[in-house]
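Q: What would this chain look like folded?
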Amino acid sequence: MFAFSSMFFAVVAIALFSAVAAFAQATPPPAFSRAKALAIYAPRPGIPLEARVKHLRGAGVCMVYVRPDGIVSRAEMLQSTGQPILDKASIDAFSKWRFKPGTVTKVKIPIRYTGNYPKY
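A: My prediction, written as structure tokens:
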């Protein structure tokens, strides 16, 4: 039993060390909740009439790139919602976001269309 627990501990320690090392090397965008808190203007994506009529659903991830002055310079879908019309609505809305100057350079924004309102 002692050998098993020692081996298990060693494997977990190596896995944690690897994860910490990988995290330290990467510079991911800030957590979405923190980034959203830094947004000074964040309009919700609308759902186009065609999407409502067709009851389109989908989930994706949009990446916004932010200039030093807080204005979004570009937005793109990292993961499509599966519906081009919903992707366009997401990009159009997130392109209008404004952030507190000098706080973020890029932000990943998860988006989910499940009904009458998008959730992000």
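DSSP finds four helices and six strands in the chain.
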